[in-house]
Amino acid sequence: MTSTLYGLDVPDETAELDIRSANPKKVFKMLFENFEMTVPEEELCHSYMKINAAMYERACRMVKPFADVFGGTLRVTKTFLSTVDERIYLGGPKMAHFLSALLNETELERMTVNIRLPGIGYRLKEGKILELLEQAYVTEAGREAHGGIVINRGEVQNLGRPCFGGTFLIFKDVGVQVGGDQAYGESSDTLFLDFRKRSVSNRNLSSYSMTDCVFVSETQEIEGLYCNGHAGPAALKSDEALRSLMDEIKAASKASDAKTITSLGHQIYSHMFANYSGRWQ
């Protein structure tokens, strides 16, 4: 039996929650348990290697009525999830989709992740911060992002594949792909800033079209990257303005300062288009 509270079909036990005074952890637990029950087996079977839009949208409908229960920063750790429910700390596809919806559709400003997940940050919205910490292992991060900030300090296989806006700060290696490709579609209107300490091969930088995207790397010169502007160590050495902006945004990332990161990101984006514009730089 379901209720039409808030114009949505949600289980009665969820409808009984007082969203004005409920404990966020209690709401999280109950929403996730109810969400679990709504996921068809066939949907789950196809979600281990790719994002399932239907599952994500179902999670969005579930969490929206409780948007004001959640705010500030949610730290997603094994300890947090196991205290909610010891069965779910491993972070499977259901949890991955649920967390993406929770960040996008509530008053959460920031989510930090320090566990293994098949995906997180799906359709990330403007004004949101997703930070992957050192112990995180994620297959897909920032897929189809439309804004916001992704800070990668963990291990990610695919970052922003594809994405349509936002700022990606890369501090640790990406195993397979940054940006879009022919299989998943091209990326657009996105800023990628690469602070990785060691030089890596170009195999994980998209050679597919990244329309109106900008890529700046501290550690490697990038040849043949098909985007509207990119710069490597040589440009950073000679371009004091760009170097200063990169240093500032790197410092702001340590405090997860969204306002400053966004402002500096816009400045870097504009600077790159003014001085390094052109698909083949």
What does this structure look like?
By secondary structure, the protein is an alpha/beta fold. The protein folds into 2 domains: 1-120, no CATH class; 121-281. The protein is built from 9 helices and 15 strands. It has helices at 12-15, 24-38, 41-45, 53-63, 78-84, 93-105, 233-238, 240-254, 258-275, and strands at 2-3, 10-11, 71-76, 107-113, 116-120, 129-132, 137-141, 149-152, 155-159, 166-170, 174-178, 187-188, 190-194, 210-217, 227-231. Strands 3, 4, 6, 8, 10, 12, 13, 14 and 15 form a 9-stranded parallel beta sheet that branches. Strands 5-7-9-11 form a 4-stranded parallel beta sheet. The longest helix has 18 residues, at 258-275. The chain is elongated and about 55 Å long. The termini are far apart. Residues 1-8 and 199-203 have low confidence and may be disordered.
Short structural summary:
This protein is 33% helix and 25% strand.
Question: Key terms for this structure?
Answer:
281 residues, 9-stranded parallel beta sheet, elongated, 33% helix, alpha/beta, 9 helices
Tell me what portion of residues adopts beta-strand conformation.
15-25%
- The rough form would be described as elongated
Major sheet description: 9 strands, parallel
Order of helices and strands: EEHHHHEHHEEEEEEEEEEEEHHH
Overall mean confidence score, pLDDT? 82
Number of strands: 15
Describe how the helices and strands are arranged:
Elements: E1 2-3, E2 10-11, H1 12-15, H2 24-38, H3 41-45, H4 53-63, E3 71-76, H5 78-84, H6 93-105, E4 107-113, E5 116-120, E6 129-132, E7 137-141, E8 149-152, E9 155-159, E10 166-170, E11 174-178, E12 187-188, E13 190-194, E14 210-217, E15 227-231, H7 233-238, H8 240-254, H9 258-275
Parallel strand pairs: 3-4, 4-6, 5-7, 6-8, 7-9, 8-10, 9-11, 10-13, 12-14, 13-14, 14-15
Antiparallel strand pairs: 1-2
Helix pairs in contact: 2-4, 4-6, 8-9
